[in-house]
Amino acid sequence: EIKLYFAKFRTKEKTGGIVVVLQDITEQQRLDNSRREFVANVSHELRTPLTTIKGYAETLLYSAEENDFDKDNFISFLNVINNESDRMTRLVKDLLVLSRLDYGKKGLKKEKFDLSALVESVVAKQEINAKSAHLTLTYEPLSALLPFEGDRDAMEQVLVNIISNAIKYTGSDGKIYVASGKMYDSVYIKIKDNGIGIPKEDLPHIFERFYRVDKARSREKGGTGLGLAISHDIIAAHGGSIKINSIYGAGTEVVIILPTGKSSKKTRK
Ligand code: ADP
């Protein structure tokens, strides 16, 4: 916020004025701080897999030079290097998506498609992951068609993020229920699980970049800590909202509400 103050003065000899400019730097400072924190987080997140890769590669190199290696060990070390490289790739991909989203709406494509068909195809693709985690995943479209205009790939990424979170953070024999429908000039998508839930004190931070309730668990499941932040930014760029309700130990519900834009405005009187 910038405030301008003017003061005039007049004496016998001359008239004049003073302009005082006061700029509120707290907002600027807050942005600087969060940018600094973000860069520190990115560096840390990239350095961790790099350190592991370097350590394992050096050990392999040393054993190869010494002609002392056991095949099983070799394979398990190479597996670690492979997994850590995949982690770095995911992280860099997510960072690129975030930087594209920093351009707001300009970074998004605009096309017409049926959101319900998109949810259905994402659910179908995630079914295999749900099955191998011994979870049931069901989709209930409460309206046959959900005409929508926006970025299809971005919306697909949101659905993949949220549904794969539900799978990652729900123990075996759990249930994941996805529903979608119309509501006035909006469409909604709900993703509900009966998994581990999120403690109340973590909920206000859950959309922050790199925020995780349980770092070790997220790492073990291959998470980057950016999925919810990306989803939030994509939904916001479409003018919608994303909310999370959760009870620790009982389950989580994610509700996405999106304005349908032109097509619904036409019918409004
Ligand atoms: P991650 O890559 O760690 O999954 P996200 O940004 O997708 O990152 O999610 C941030 C954190 O929110 C996760 O680490 C997890 O602690 C929590 N979380 C997200 N979805 C769920 C869910 N359905 N149930 C429980 N916790 C969740």
How would you sum up this structure, described in words?
The chain has 269 residues and is of the alpha+beta class. The chain contains 7 helices and 9 strands. The longest helix has 41 residues, at 25-65. β8 and β9 (251-259) form a beta hairpin. It is extended and about 100 Å long. Helices cover 48% and strands 24% of the residues. Adenosine-5'-diphosphate binds at residues 161, 165-166, 169, 193, 195-198, 206, 211-214, 218, 223-229, 252. Residues 41-262 form the Histidine kinase domain. This is histidine kinase. It is found in: Membrane. It comes from Qingrenia yutianensis.
Any key phrases for this structure?
single chain, 269 residues, alpha+beta, five-stranded mixed β-sheet, two-stranded antiparallel ribbon, 9 strands, extended, disordered C terminus, binds adenosine-5'-diphosphate, histidine kinase
Report the mean per-residue pLDDT as an integer: 90
Q: Quickly count the helices.
A: 7
What's the end-to-end separation, in Å? 39 Å
Write out the distinct hetero groups bound to the structure.
adenosine-5'-diphosphate
Main β sheet profile: 5 strands, mixed
Q: What is the CA-based Rg, rounded?
A: 25 Å
Number of strands: 9
